[in-house]
Amino acid sequence: MFEFLRKDLILVLAVAAVFLSLSYAIGFVTERDPTPVETQPAFLEGDRTPRAQSATTRVWKEHAFEKLLALGKPAVTKPMIVRAADNDDFYVLDWDDLRIKVFSPEGNLLRVFGDGKGTSAGGFTNPTSFSIAPNGELWVCDPIQRKITHFQVDGVAQAIAPQNAVDRVTVLGDVLVTMAPPGSSQLFEVYSPSGKQLKSFGEFLQNQSQQGIILDGGVVSDPESDGFIYGGRHLGVIAGYGADGGQRFVAHTIDGNPLPKVLNIGGRLKVKPYGTPAILSLSLLDNELYVLSGVHSDGTTGQGGKVMDVYDRQDGHYLYSWELPAEGQEAIVGSHYIYIRTDNEITVWRFKPNA
Prior knowledge:
The protein has 355 residues and is mainly beta. The chain has two domains: 1-31; 35-352, TolB, C-terminal domain (Neuraminidase), CATH 2.120.10.30. The protein contains two helices and 27 strands. It has helices spanning 2-26, 208-211; strands at 37-39, 64-71, 79-84, 90-94, 99-103, 109-113, 129-132, 138-142, 147-151, 157-160, 168-172, 175-179, 188-191, 197-201, 217-222, 227-232, 237-242, 247-252, 261-265, 268-272, 281-285, 288-293, 305-312, 318-328, 330-333, 337-341, 346-352. The longest helix is centred in the N-terminal third of the chain and has 25 residues, at 2-26.
């Protein structure tokens, strides 16, 4: 009888093994992701805690817009970043061929920088930000290659190796201000054009090195104040700094978004935001900081933003808002035009404030 039981047991185990194997093959049994661990970041206390805006509702102003240009295929296929130069030309990072293309406001292609060959002097693998110097030179950061590429106006490229990986870059006079990728206790670094690190600073959060993934955002240079302004995409926070690291202000946006939570899934960190991104893009003109919000004027949300909130560049207090003529993932305000980027085109608009 014992031998029969052994044979039956072996048969049962064999059938079970075959069933388990088939189950994996057809998807009944899969490896489950680890249970997410949710944590709530917190701001630092004292003068580094963002102050609330005194205004609690938006003040609306009317603008008149005239559409001048819609630039898409074949000129640009996958626009990812748009920036405006002082002379009204605009620069577009096209993810289709990993080149930065320069256009006149009329849509004429003027110059092309870089290529998708990461091994070349001007080649990119994963460009995440670029900045235009007043003289037309270009600085592009590529964190995967751990380099910043400097392009002269004629396209000659020279790569520098910063001390740490760089996720965002902006030119400020004769120095470069950079943002570190998530995981650093110091968000900003200042480099010389040769790549020498001059300073590091920028703390917003308790345990920032563990939860800094929520600090994703952008920086824009503020030459009038010899500094720059940071905008946190998920934080809903704007902050002004000097190139020496001195904090000028740190303030919530008009929406006052709560801090998002961080999900740790088997060592992989993800942001668990509250709704849409608070800050989609930043630009400066005269004494005003323009912040594209992910919230529409009627309170709804979409693939991009249509509301431009305006803040004082000196202390970050809210001034007023206006609605864009089209929705976009970025909207950059220049001296005469607004450049609105979607996933497949750039539109250029002439605008007249307070019409």
